[in-house]
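Batch queue: ligand-bound targets. Current item pairs a single chain with magnesium ion. No template structures supplied; prediction is de novo from sequence plus SMILES. Inputs echoed for audit trail.
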Amino acid sequence: MRRPLTVGKVVLENVVKRYGNVEVVKDLNLTINQGEFLTLLGPSGCGKTTTLMMIAGFEFPSAGRIRIDGADVTDKPPFLRNVNTVFQNYALFPHMKVADNVAFGLRTRRTPKSEIPERVRHALSLVQMEEYGGRWPRQLSGGQQQRVALARALVLQPEVLLLDEPLGALDLKLRKEMQVELKHLHRKLGTTFLFVTHDQEEALTMSDRIVVMNGGRIEQIGPSAEIYDRPKTRFVAEFIGETNMLKARVLERNGSGTLVEAAGVRLPLLGAAVPPGDRVLLSVRPERVRVTTDPSQQAVLARVTDRIYVGSGVKIIANAPDGTTLTASGMPGTPLADCMPGEPVRLTWDAEAVVPLPEAGEGAA
Ligand SMILES: Nc1ncnc2c1ncn2[C@@H]1O[C@H](COP(=O)(O)OP(=O)(O)OP(=O)(O)O)[C@@H](O)[C@H]1O
Ligand SMILES: [Mg+2]
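Prediction returned. Tokens below.
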């Protein structure tokens, strides 16, 4: 059967960005689908803003092409792209009232005067700021200013909205509220969202797919759950959430799987997804580690060094005889939550909780 030809909403082909002789974006290939909520996630300086600015047209690639709706826009200025940006520092014009801030883009694009008030009202209503058109920016809270910045971008009805850490300046509670509002807006408008954050939890909760970047390169692209449960590199496993990293030695490999030794115990690895070589890293999330009292179960005998109350549950840190440190988290009322520092504990996990990773962190498992 012939597959339909799909054209991405935004496509980056072998995009490189150099400043002087430093490559800050390295051979980036990325397709953003129509209507998708895609997040660029990565540490400070990994090239997120630079990538966004190239899509917006405020920076130009040193090499490679950028297509929007199939058309090559690589050399086109920002106003010839149907893309709008909410910048990392979202400053509103301080000398303009809220409604004028939102109307600004319409005026510069010579929108008929009679249309402007209704479009401004509609954009402000989308972010629940209809009542605030007559205020000065300084009379608004940080979260309200942020919403006006969003309205200023939405009023132009872009097909692609680029959001560079739009919630970075907000306190945790407001940030969570705005996350919900943004998701709601995304569903309602059907606009393609390209969102940037260095907050992994924010990325996991908001995105259809996440692009994990590191040093100007893409480490992994996938749906949130896949990025969290099946990281392909050590960098991704450690950057997204907390994880236990165990050094393991491959003992035996046969048709049905692999037997390895880690933290002094023998463990089966499911499937054949073990990178070549005698050594492999195993990533196991703390919430997958359990305390067992069943002597017949394979387990790591460790000693609890710390017990940390984290509100929703308890986290324990324990040392295995070979020096491996393991972190386990559990809900109140589970055997894990009752473990006290100094006590011995037997820790176990299901074979499917283990993600094998290449030791050097290069390539895919
Ligand atoms: N105009 C410029 N001239 C020279 N180097 C630059 C320029 N803009 C960015 N860089 C460098 O490019 C790299 C990527 O910067 P970028 O702003 O894209 O990072 P980022 O991922 O957005 O980081 P953050 O999370 O801190 O915002 C950084 O090392 C930065 O110093
Ligand atoms: Mg940035």
